[in-house]
UniProtKB/TrEMBL annotation:
Keywords: NADP, Oxidoreductase
InterPro entries, sorted: Ald_DH/histidinol_DH, Ald_DH_C, Ald_DH_CS_GLU, Ald_DH_N, Aldehyde_DH_dom, Aldehyde_DH_Superfamily, Succ_semiAld_DH
Domain Aldehyde dehydrogenase: residue ranges: 21-481
EC number(s) recorded for this UniProt protein: 1.2.1.24
GO BP term (any one): gamma-aminobutyric acid catabolic process
Pfam family, one: Aldedh
EC class: oxidoreductase
Domain of life: Bacteria
Homology family: Belongs to the aldehyde dehydrogenase family.
One MF term in the entry's GO annotations: succinate-semialdehyde dehydrogenase (NAD+) activity
Signal sequence range: none
Active site as annotated: 258
This protein's name: Succinic semialdehyde dehydrogenase
Amino acid sequence: MTIAEELSSIFRNRALIGGEWVAARSGATYAVLNPATGAVISEVPDMSEQDATEAVVAAKAAGKAWAAFSAKQRARVLRDWHDLILANQEELALLITSEQGKPLEEARAEIAYGAAYVEWYAEEAKRINGEVIPPPAGDRRIIVIKQPIGVVSAITPWNFPMAMITRKVAPALAAGCTIVVKPAEDTPLVALALAELACQAGVIPGAINVVTASRGHEVGHVLTTHPDVRKVSFTGSTQVGRILLRQSADTIKKVSLELGGNAPFVVFDDADLDAAVSGAIACKFRNGGQACISANRIYVQSGIHDTFAARLSSAVRELKVGAGDQAGVVLGPMINSKAVEKIESHVMDACNGGAKVLVGGKRHDLGGNFYDPTVLVNVDPSMLLNREETFGPVAPIISFETEQQVVELANDTEYGLAAYFYTKDHSRAWRVAEELESGMVGINTGLISNEMAPFGGIKQSGLGREGSSYGIEDYLEVKYICVGGI
């Protein structure tokens, strides 16, 4: 039985425009591959600028009708969408594992995580409050209201193909906006399944549109330059984020960007070592290290460096590598061969510079897109894997002496998305948390993401926030109304 047959109630392999499941105008398709096996899962439309333009037109056409829904009505639709997602959690998880590669247990967790954003914004839809401001004169009244910004475009990554969509689509719909989603070319199938469930939940035709394409730059150009798109939301690399920001400038769009990270993970000598090792495993090796908030640079104070490195290496040796649908697997494949090549280049650069491999350091015996979970020591801050996101299961350990030194090392990057540190000293906890140049900080934890907290970075890690009550603001315009002659 094929996955399309097994998941027939939610499986879609055509794009969604204006409430219709359609092929590309050109008839072109491209193959979606299973990264664990290389097998073709399905073919999806390979859409062009023309198709993307039609999606924007459809979104605009649906805009007034969707915005006319009361906040309570939109909340009800979103709540139904949330319930349908959870009712199909196993099916969606299987789809994620098939096209993205992560283990089923992690895929199930992503479904729950992504659904939580839909639930949160179903509730926030009813809390888009305005304000009455004391006027400067007795014959006037000042009122502030919030209205949907209009058509939104969302360009999402492959590493969390479900959660990154709901984190953008849910607040847009809750605010009364309509949206065009361009999912990553490697992982379009879960996006299409989510759109099918949104239609079943009662989202009106054209309120959500999904455009699939292997040539992301063509569709992305439309979604950032079309005058009817009023907001762009992108999650991906800093390099691409710069391009999209430039493209959005001529039409003065509101832009939110969740870009690359280079997260420091600091272990002070007073830390709970067991907790720090567990946190490092969770923070570094979840999704095979393919997360923007993964620990990328692990700094350990010199007095405990060797002990920590030994304990981390022992834990890493126990991580089972394999296809995500196999029992007990903790690390699935990398998304594609380019990802493996980047990991290899970073490890080779480190070893050539004097780093020592304690665990791994090579492609896994399974071959293909699999790479051994790796621990390195004798790492220098100048090495590639400390200056760039490795985006793979490689843990480089760097020794440091003082608090001031490690804060300077942690901040010595153009990125500022997430940072983590372990300490039992409460004074140090406050000092370091405030000194780290990062939009999010985890203290004594390697897991920080949830729908109730504002997710986002500073410096070249992005603009804006997603999740929490802050996350809906970018989808709203603030309007001031002055009433005179009272």
